TrEMBL record:
The keyword Signal applies. Keywords: Aspartyl protease, Disulfide bond, Glycoprotein, Hydrolase, Protease, Signal. Residues 95-420 form the Peptidase A1 domain. This is Peptidase A1 domain-containing protein. Residues 1-19 form the signal peptide. GO terms for biological process: proteolysis. It comes from the Eukaryota. GO terms for molecular function: aspartic-type endopeptidase activity. It comes from Hibiscus trionum.
Length: 425
């Protein structure tokens, strides 16, 4: 008893000494992966320079802006190659999970992205990558795919100079190049043999998540397609609030253990962009009032790419101008009290404490009412509070701050997305 206690104390102290929260040491089990915010004490990607709250918000907004612009241009472009992994981005890999790659396993902290299909990791010798790389020479099961392999047809810009299936693509503000490869990976305790991913040899720019990307989109080269037998294209996550950095959320893969009581809305498919998770947002309520939004601001249109997507990589929800203005004006009217100021791209900020109305996203068949914690950001000093939404050029994006502390279930076989409140931080 006593020795257990001492062991526990020692464990706590040694964890603290490493700057780690005790929670970081716990292992992933079954088909459940812990999800960490990039600024979590468990993450090695915390900015080295401590930013002020305002600087941090402005930087996040700028990265978000780039991601949203890119997502919008993607869906609008008529010439987008219909296949897989192409021109995706993560401007801000907000949430990371542990993935074990190779034999023996090497652990990488990969960014989770629902709007991307591809998985890729920086490999030994990669020019422009961070210092943590996958050392493929140490894995006895690693294999570089050749041009004759069927999967080579699914990568963007394949080049077959040597025998390897080499590819390159743009990713946000970056370009990445590598060879299509295969190895066994393990997610929590689930082995996934012969997983096809990109082994990066070169990157430029700074949009590349330092230890790689785990795409959770639904295109042909995605994790969902490659683990079809195991996970049946079903997963859910609960994202921890970025205000409670000591907590981890969870990524639950496969149909087992998913919530039974959950509200659903149908998933829509845009043939031009098969990997994106489109849904039908039909109206928005501020408090009890349904605001007046022109129907075409929310309508799904596969030929222009307009509509609404659920995205794990964007931080703050974006609505196209007429929808955003309607929501914002009603929000301001309800808050009434004080003078409105702005902070970067946020135009509805207050320098006095406010009581905010809820905002309800009304999807077909499902209303999601967001409480204050999903709507407002507060400066650490308490000086300023902002409505954490902004306007977008062409596409409505339901972003991760508005999903925090909800279980979001992607049920691709039944073509639906579920939402339920769940306190995961
Ligand atoms: C790893 O992959 C190889 C083929 O690349 C396969 O034969 C082997 O069974 C796998 N090992 C494990 C432990 O899954
Ligand atoms: C990308 O691939 C194309 C061929 O598909 C090649 O012409 C181009 O030089 C490559 N770009 C980079 C940066 O490697
Ligand atoms: C990737 O491909 C290039 C050229 O095809 C080759 O020089 C390089 O050795 C390959 N790297 C790996 C890890 O297979
Ligand atoms: C993995 O690939 C190896 C050889 O490439 C093959 O022998 C094995 O059957 C494959 N395993 C699975 C589960 O596809
Ligand atoms: C996080 O955990 C550390 C160590 O366990 C503790 O010192 C710190 O106060 C915690 N922070 C929050 C916001 O709970
Ligand atoms: C609001 O702004 C007006 C004009 O700038 C100013 O006179 C007034 O004191 C402000 N009110 C508060 C509560 O800050
Ligand atoms: C959503 O809320 C509206 C009232 O604002 C109600 O009429 C509608 O039935 C609700 N939809 C669902 C699916 O509960």
């Amino acid at each position: 008893m006593k020795s257990h206690f001492i062991a526990l104390v020692f464990f706590l102290i040694s964890s603290l000494a490493q700057g780690l929260n005790p929670k970081c040491a716990t292992q992933d089990h079954g088909s459940n992966l812990q999800v960490f915010h990039v600024y979590s004490p468990c993450s090695p990607f915390k900015p080295s320079k401590q930013l002020s709250w305002e600087e941090d918000v402005l930087q996040t907004l700028a990265k978000d802006q780039a991601r949203v612009k890119y997502l919008s241009s993607l869906v609008a472009k008529k010439s987008v190659v219909p296949i897989a992994s192409g021109r995706q981005i993560v401007q801000s890999p907000t949430y990371i999970v542990r993935v074990n790659i190779g034999t023996p396993p090497q652990t990488m902290l990969m960014a989770m992205d629902t709007s991307s299909d591809a998985a890729w990791v920086p490999c030994t010798g990669c020019i422009g990558c961070s210092s943590t790389v996958f050392d493929y020479a140490k894995s006895t099961t690693f294999k570089t795919l050749g041009c004759q392999d069927a999967q080579c047809k699914q990568v963007p810009n394949p080049t077959c100079g040597g025998s390897a299936c080499a590819f390159n693509m743009t990713y946000g503000g970056s370009t990445i190049a590598g060879n299509l490869s295969r190895d066994n990976i393990t997610l929590a305790t689930d082995p996934i043999p012969n997983y096809t991913f990109g082994c990066l040899q070169k990157t430029t720019g700074n949009s590349v998540p330092p230890q790689g990307l785990l795409g959770l989109g639904r295109g042909p080269l995605s994790l969902l397609s490659q683990s079809q037998n195991l996970y049946q294209s079903t997963f859910s996550y609960c994202l921890p609030s970025f205000r409670s950095l000591n907590f981890s959320g969870s990524l639950r893969l496969g149909p087992t253990g998913q919530p039974l009581r959950i509200k659903y809305t149908p998933l829509l498919k845009n043939p031009r962009k098969p990997s994106l998770y489109y849904v039908n947002l039909v109206a928005i309520r501020v408090g009890r009032k349904i605001v007046d939004i022109p129907p075409n601001a929310l309508a799904f249109n596969p030929s222009t790419g307009a509509g609404t997507i659920i995205d794990s990589g964007t931080v703050f929800t974006r609505l196209v101008q007429p929808a955003y203005v309607a929501v914002r004006d009603e929000f301001r009217r309800r808050v009434r009290a004080a003078n409105v100021t702005s902070l970067g791209g946020f135009d509805t900020c207050y320098s006095v404490p406010i009581v905010a109305p809820t905002i309800t996203l009304m999807f077909s068949g499902m209303n999601v009412t967001l409480p204050q914690e999903n709507l407002l950001i507060h400066s650490t000093a308490g000086g300023i509070t902002c409505l954490a939404m902004a306007s977008a050029p062409a596409l409505n994006v339901i972003a991760n701050m508005q999903q925090q502390n909800h279980r979001v279930l992607f049920d691709v076989p039944n073509s639906r997305v579920g939402f339920a409140r769940e306190q995961c931080s």
